[in-house]
Amino acid sequence: MAETKPVVLDPLERINRYGLECVGPAGDGIVFKAGYWKTGGEYIQKLTIRNVSTKVKKFKYKLPSTRYFSMAYPETIVLSPGMFQEIDVVFRPVEMNPYDDTIYIKMMEGAGSGGFHVPVRALISKLIV
To answer: Is the dihedral of CA 10, 11, 12, 17 positive or negative?
Structure first.
């Protein structure tokens, strides 16, 4: 059975639907850019989750599914309007390959509140002819 890739919402749709902005140093989600990492190293970027709504937001995150990305053990996070939380995302590559994963943010606002995926990627340089 083929594994389906999680759907990652557009940043504006994520803000409109859930009231949370999730950015890293390079924009939406976390991106470890080509040329800035090598195998055997450990690299850390901060994912900033900001409440851009007018209501208190309560959520948990699910760790990335691959072993190359790791984070602190997920606990429930409560953010008042305008507040933010920074979460370290650690990348430990073992091969010079592109890596693609997601962090699932589960909203804790009652039954059926849903959630969304935030992209986590590591890119490599490609020669294009």
So the answer is: positive
